Amino acid sequence: MEEEGWLSDGRMRANEPVLRFAPSPNGRLHLGHAYSALLNAHIAERLGGRLLLRIEDIDLGRSRPEFVAGILTDLDWLGLRFEALVRRQSEHFPDYAAARDALAARGLIYPCFCSRGQIAAKVAARAASGEWAPRDPDGAPLYPGTCRHLSNDEATACRERGEPHTWRLDMPAALRSVSEPPVIRRFSPDDGALETVAAAPSRWGDAVIVRRDVPTSYHLAVVCDDALQGITHVVRGQDLEAATDLHALLQRLLGLPSPAYHHHALIRDEDGEKLAKSKSSESLADLRARGITAEDVRTGLGF
């Protein structure tokens, strides 16, 4: 099957490579972000392509203007330069809503009125009765499909009552709707060589595609953004590798081009744990305050 931007034998068309670094402004950048940003810049230079900056701020409750400013300061300190036009997801909710509506019109997503507590209780009850409770790649129990079986009238009545809800992908229906199983193109950062592997989106079950609070999710927003920005190569951490299975399916469902992917190793602390904002890992601003230079960071990370 031939897709936009690619030839049927897996070679990219003669288009300029486009990469992106896409942090979330819910905290300060740390060494893990620095590594990913520098690697994106290195690969973009090697491929003779462009590098874009995207601010992934759909989490309106946790995103802060000072964190956006901090991201720009940190990247400038590292010596990284991006094109002036920076895409901010919070300014493009209509794009994601249009994708949501396209999926809904085909009956591929459904409203889910279950709270996290209700889902956890149902899964716990199944486990207590000895029933196997499968989990997704992140370790969370797969949604048992409760609301998938609501009639249109029942779901409409719940929505008209204003009951909070997410929208979930009807995974069985989605897989039936594609003419060919989704695939993932992986590329080598050393020589750009491509390999194609089968995607396994079913391991995510009926994943949340639209959150309660905004008309999208990370998964839906990122595939829309990559297509709208013409991203040809995605370079991100191994913690997002499994999500690519779901992204490949969404790209197929929405008729979007599929970038080539490389998932790099994560930077870890002394205990072998990955660096994370949620764990208050030392930020680049903290390092700067301790007298660490950008050259020190670049050299220490292999750049």
From TrEMBL:
<keyword id="KW-0067">ATP-binding</keyword>
<dbReference type="GO" id="GO:0016874">
    <property type="term" value="F:ligase activity"/>
</dbReference>
<dbReference type="InterPro" id="IPR014729">
    <property type="entry name" value="Rossmann-like_a/b/a_fold"/>
</dbReference>
<comment type="similarity">
    <text>Belongs to the class-I aminoacyl-tRNA synthetase family.</text>
</comment>
<keyword id="KW-0030">Aminoacyl-tRNA synthetase</keyword>
<protein>
    <submittedName>
        <fullName>Glutamate--tRNA ligase</fullName>
    </submittedName>
</protein>
<keyword id="KW-0479">Metal-binding</keyword>
<dbReference type="InterPro" id="IPR020058">
    <property type="entry name" value="Glu/Gln-tRNA-synth_Ib_cat-dom"/>
</dbReference>
<keyword id="KW-0436">Ligase</keyword>
<dbReference type="InterPro" id="IPR001412">
    <property type="entry name" value="aa-tRNA-synth_I_CS"/>
</dbReference>
<dbReference type="InterPro" id="IPR049940">
    <property type="entry name" value="GluQ/Sye"/>
</dbReference>
<dbReference type="Pfam" id="PF00749">
    <property type="entry name" value="tRNA-synt_1c"/>
</dbReference>
<dbReference type="InterPro" id="IPR000924">
    <property type="entry name" value="Glu/Gln-tRNA-synth"/>
</dbReference>
<keyword id="KW-0862">Zinc</keyword>
<feature type="domain" description="Glutamyl/glutaminyl-tRNA synthetase class Ib catalytic">
    <location>
        <begin position="19"/>
        <end position="286"/>
    </location>
</feature>
<keyword id="KW-0648">Protein biosynthesis</keyword>
<keyword id="KW-0547">Nucleotide-binding</keyword>
